[in-house]
């Protein structure tokens, strides 16, 4: 689109008679096109892309990012968690302030970084959040560029401009908000239930609706949100297991519906993504959710579920070895033609394996489906002498430059490199916690290459949690920085790169 607009603008500009004595005169016939063209050039993030590397946080207490996205002008929005104000000594944000005691209270923050050098443009604090090793709040965009944010809130909540419904006095509550890119809030609200669990994922669809999927505990009978319409169905689980409470909010914050996605066993949502006019949900379940037959009742298997904008299920498929139980669905990535799900396992499965397991050690398992849920291939990445980490989420993107899936993981300190893909491995990485970039062919599931690079000098190390591509070859990396041998990240690292 940009390439089309530029020639048109130049043609119109050249058709005007310029007055170079005062080109900024509003009365001039070409004033509007000059300003439009200047604005177009200035706000094009790809054209104005800069490379830089920065760290954020005091380094004293836990600080990490959970997601980021590029704005159209190239600036970066980051969401994350911190036990200390991001800018040391300044606890006030654009609308909210850091709550609680530094070093004790984990707050959710939102910040904007300059495309030029990574300087902080603004920071906002959204309150204290529930901390779970696997729960990482994500960012979604509305059609006009506004940001959709949701997380599990603890503590007192906030009462600042834009509040629709105040937080009730439950232990956990759900914060949902529509934020502008200047840090202000169009609206935000709290959704309350005495059965709020420990996982929440969300996505914004093409109608600017927010789809929320929450772990719903059974202690009080799987209680629904009090602020939303009466659920359209009933939960199936008992008091001893979990269901999924599914809700849709309209773009103005008003509730559209809520319903249960549930079985007689445990059901968990882990990943949500909007693509191709539908919302895709990844998670794990031990039962037959909403009538879709589970192949190994009682075994916790990964699943992929697709819903439309009215909240109706189009399909639900279960994955994995039906005699094995799995942990969380680590990632779900959807593009125009494929769905890629990442889990960890020490058991092989499927008749379409392209890269085999190396031993009965824990491996990353990549499973690709078409957009209708039909399995295309499975490939395993791991070592014959040690396990991959159980609770890390190595990020995967579809690399537009190469046309390959690209996954970046941190090698655990129990082995040097993966046994998988040894014939296509390259790079000069050495030492502990090497960084491995695995490139996978979407058409075949085979490893194109695995590139190894060294981590940062000891005693520090980094782990990349998110990779995003602004445009071809222009990449952003968000890292957790471990400033000692401790397992708690104390700084957030961010880097932009031209590749």
Notable traits:
499 residues; mainly beta; 3 domains; five-stranded mixed beta sheet; 30 strands; 5% helix; disordered N terminus
Strand order of the largest sheet: 18-19-21-22-20
What is the general shape?
globular
pLDDT averaged over residues: 92
Number of strands: 30
Q: Give the biggest sheet.
A: 5 strands, mixed
In the predicted model, the low-confidence regions spanning at least 5 consecutive residues are: 1-14
The whole-angstrom Rg is 24 Å
Helix content: under 10%
Number of helices: 2
Structural class: mainly beta
Please indicate the count of domains: 3
Amino- and carboxy-terminal Cα gap: 23 Å
Strand content: 35-45%
Protein name: Lipoprotein
Task: Give a verbal description of the structure.
With 499 residues, the protein is mainly β. It has three domains: 1-16 and 31-44, no CATH class; 129-322, no CATH class; 330-455, no CATH class. It contains two helices and 30 strands. The protein has a five-stranded mixed β-sheet with strand order 18-19-21-22-20, with no helix packed on it. Strands 23-24-26-27-25 form a five-stranded mixed β-sheet, with no helix packed on it. β12 (243-249) and β13 form a beta hairpin. The longest helix has 14 residues, at 2-15. It is globular and about 60 Å long. This is Lipoprotein.
Short characterization:
The chain is mainly beta and 499 residues long. It is built from 2 helices and 30 strands.
SSE diagram, text form:
Blueprint: H1 2-15, H2 31-42, E1 53-56, E2 63-70, E3 76-82, E4 107-113, E5 120-128, E6 139-141, E7 147-153, E8 173-179, E9 185-191, E10 196-204, E11 210-216, E12 243-249, E13 255-261, E14 267-275, E15 278-285, E16 301-307, E17 313-318, E18 331-334, E19 338-345, E20 353-355, E21 363-370, E22 375-381, E23 396-399, E24 404-410, E25 425-426, E26 435-440, E27 447-453, E28 461-471, E29 474-482, E30 491-498
Parallel strand pairs: 20-22, 25-27
Antiparallel strand pairs: 1-30, 2-3, 3-4, 4-5, 6-7, 7-8, 8-9, 10-11, 11-12, 12-13, 14-15, 15-16, 16-17, 18-19, 19-21, 21-22, 23-24, 24-26, 26-27, 28-29, 29-30
């Amino acid at each position: 689109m940009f390439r089309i607009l530029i020639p048109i603008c130049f043609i119109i500009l050249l058709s005007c008679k310029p007055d170079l004595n005062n080109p900024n005169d509003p009365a001039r016939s070409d004033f509007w096109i000059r300003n439009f063209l200047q604005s177009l050039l200035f706000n094009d993030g790809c054209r104005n892309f800069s490379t830089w590397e920065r760290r954020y946080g005091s380094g004293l207490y836990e600080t990490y990012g959970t997601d980021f996205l590029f704005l159209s002008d190239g600036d970066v929005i980051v969401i994350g968690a911190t036990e200390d104000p991001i800018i040391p000594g300044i606890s006030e944000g654009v609308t909210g302030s850091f709550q609680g005691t530094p070093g004790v209270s984990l707050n959710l923050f939102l910040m904007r970084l300059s495309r030029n050098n990574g300087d902080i443009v603004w920071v906002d604090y959204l309150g204290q959040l529930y901390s779970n090793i696997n729960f990482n709040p994500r960012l979604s965009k509305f059609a006009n560029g506004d940001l959709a944010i949701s997380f599990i809130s603890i503590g007192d909540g906030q009462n600042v401009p834009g509040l629709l419904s105040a937080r009730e006095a439950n232990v956990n509550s759900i914060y949902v908000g529509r934020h502008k890119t200047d840090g202000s809030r169009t609206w935000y609200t709290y959704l309350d239930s005495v059965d709020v669990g420990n996982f929440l994922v969300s996505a914004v669809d093409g109608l600017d609706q927010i789809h929320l999927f929450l772990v719903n505990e059974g202690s009080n009978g799987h209680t629904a949100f009090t602020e939303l319409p009466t659920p359209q169905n009933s939960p199936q689980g008992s008091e001893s297991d979990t269901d999924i409470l599914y809700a849709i909010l309209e773009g103005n914050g008003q509730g559209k519906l809520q319903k249960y996605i549930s079985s007689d066993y445990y059901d968990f949502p882990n990943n949500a993504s909007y693509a191709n006019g539908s919302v895709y949900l990844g998670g794990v379940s031990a039962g037959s959710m909403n009538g879709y037959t589970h192949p190994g009742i009682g075994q916790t298997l990964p699943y992929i579920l697709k819903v439309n904008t009215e909240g109706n299920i189009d399909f639900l498929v279960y994955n994995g070895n039906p005699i094995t139980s799995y942990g969380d669905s680590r990632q779900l990535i959807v593009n125009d033609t494929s769905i890629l799900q990442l889990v960890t396992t020490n058991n092989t499965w499927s008749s379409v394996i392209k890269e085999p397991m190396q031993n009965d050690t824990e491996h990353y398992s990549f499973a690709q489906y078409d957009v209708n849920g039909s399995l295309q291939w499975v490939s395993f990445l791991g070592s014959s002498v040690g396990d991959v980490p159980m609770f890390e989420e190595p990020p995967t993107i579809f690399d537009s430059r190469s046309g390959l899936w690209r996954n970046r993981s941190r090698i655990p300190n129990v082995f040097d490199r993966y046994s998988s893909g040894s014939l296509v491995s390259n790079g000069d990485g050495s030492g502990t916690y090497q960084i491995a970039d695995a490139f996978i062919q979407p058409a075949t599931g085979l490893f194109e290459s695995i590139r190894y690079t060294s981590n940062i000098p000891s005693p520090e190390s980094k782990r990349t949690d998110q990779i995003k591509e602004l445009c071809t070859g222009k990449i952003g990396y968000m890292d957790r920085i471990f400033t000692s041998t401790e397992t708690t990240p104390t700084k957030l690292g961010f880097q932009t790169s031209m590749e």
